[in-house]
Specification:
- The chain has nine helices and eight strands.
- The chain is α+β, with helices and mostly antiparallel strands.
- The protein has two domains: about 160 residues, no CATH class; about 130 residues, 2-Layer Sandwich (Heat Shock Protein 90).
- Strands 2, 4, 5, 6, 7 and 8 form a six-stranded mixed beta sheet that branches. A two-stranded antiparallel ribbon has the order 1-3.
- α2 packs antiparallel against α3 and α6 crosses α7.
- The longest helix is centred in the first third of the chain and has 55 residues.
- This is Sensor histidine kinase.
- Keywords: Kinase, Membrane, Transferase, Transmembrane, Transmembrane helix.
- It comes from Pedobacter albus.
Length: about 375
């Protein structure tokens, strides 16, 4: 028989406790998300009730709170049952048509019974005496048709928003996979060793070439670090400066760019996602025209009192493909939503010949 040591038993128990704790955290998070979704429905429900009762009051000039709430206590659950249970079957097409018809029929019968029970209690409540039982289906039928159409429209709008969100998330994930793939293909140690060798060989021949190689090594070393690792704003600003300096050496006097970097010592210590500023500066060189002396490109980065601001302005390059620009902006928006929920503002102004961007973060 296999025996276990006290250490092995301890590790097994610790693993079980960790798994239970993680499962509890996940279930708690899911419950919080479900609660938020339910609360999101409340303003819409109140708006519809207000609209319907306002329309009825304009004709009858009467409003009975108790009787109105009794009917809505039936209508609201039926609306959500149709939207979340019957409408998905209807949207699936002819394969589930029979199941949808059967489900709607059962729901209509239950709704008809509940409506007639509600009619009896409302008549008894208003008259204050025992009333006879009457059964009517015409009003309930058209109310059920109204609820079915409204619930189906709600389901289709919710489904459209979900598909649009999934498509945007898929583009962002594809961009992340492409970036991860490029990082895995590049062999950092080999490249950095090669660049160091080139730097040592050309240092005596050309100081400019040696500086360019050194800047290129620093830019690449910063770019291939793990994307999930946060960096200080000081490091990110240094990367922006290195990237611009490398392009100034490469383009010389052709480059027309005005850059202003200002950040307090306190702000420089805050952490930010890597490349969050550098990628936007890189987009200027990739998609912009930075060779016009009259209209030079502008970069202004400021940070004061935990507020980081990036402003860029540039002319658009002529006949330059922008196949990755929309995906890159989607990736940036996703990055901001994950790291700075409710604490960021991204404004993009695109005209025929110019591109302007303003990003503000609360660190």
């Amino acid at each position: 028989m296999m025996s276990y040591t006290d250490r092995e038993i301890f590790y097994v128990k610790r693993s079980i406790v960790y798994a239970k704790t993680r499962a509890t955290k996940i279930s708690t998070k899911q419950m919080e998300q479900r609660t938020k979704r339910k609360l999101y429905h409340l303003p819409g429900v109140l708006l519809v009730i207000g609209y319907e009762q306002g329309f009825v009051f304009s004709y009858t000039h009467e409003f009975h709170f108790i009787s109105t709430m009794i009917y809505y206590l039936i209508d609201i659950p039926v609306f959500f049952l149709i939207s979340y249970k019957a409408a998905p079957y209807l949207h699936a097409g002819h394969r589930r048509l029979l199941r949808t018809v059967c489900l709607l029929t059962v729901m209509f019968i239950c709704y008809l019974l509940l409506q007639n029970i509600a009619d009896y209690f409302v008549l008894w409540y208003r008259s204050g005496q025992t009333v006879g039982w009457t059964f009517s289906g015409k009003k309930s039928f058209w109310r059920f048709v109204y609820l079915t159409g409204f619930a189906t429209a709600y389901f289709l709008s919710r489904e459209g928003l979900r598909r649009a969100r999934e498509g945007r998330d898929l583009e962002v994930r594809n961009l992340e996979l492409e970036t991860a793939y490029l990082r895995s293909v590049i062999k950092p140690h080999f490249i950095f060793n090669t660049l160091n060798f080139i730097h040592s060989e050309v240092a005596e021949l050309s100081a400019t070439a040696a500086t360019s190689v050194s800047l290129l090594a620093e830019v690449m070393q910063y770019a291939v670090q793990p994307s999930g690792k946060a960096v200080s704003l000081e490091e990110e600003l240094a990367q922006v400066n290195h990237y611009v300096m490398l392009n100034r050496i490469r383009l010389g006097e052709q480059l027309q760019l005005q850059m202003d970097l200002r950040a307090t010592p306190e702000c420089r210590q805050y952490n930010v996602p890597p490349l969050i500023l550098t990628n936007l500066v890189e987009n200027m060189f990739k998609h912009g025209n930075l060779y016009d002396r009259i209209h030079p490109g502008r970069i202004r980065i400021t940070c004061e009192k935990r507020t980081l601001s990036l402003f860029t302005w540039n002319l658009k390059a002529r006949a330059r493909p922008l196949e990755s620009a929309s995906v890159g902006m989607a990736y940036l928006q996703n990055l901001l939503d994950r790291n700075y929920p409710g604490k960021h503002c991204l404004q993009v102004k695109t005209e025929e010949n110019t591109f302007e961007l303003l990003m503000t973060l609360q660190l």
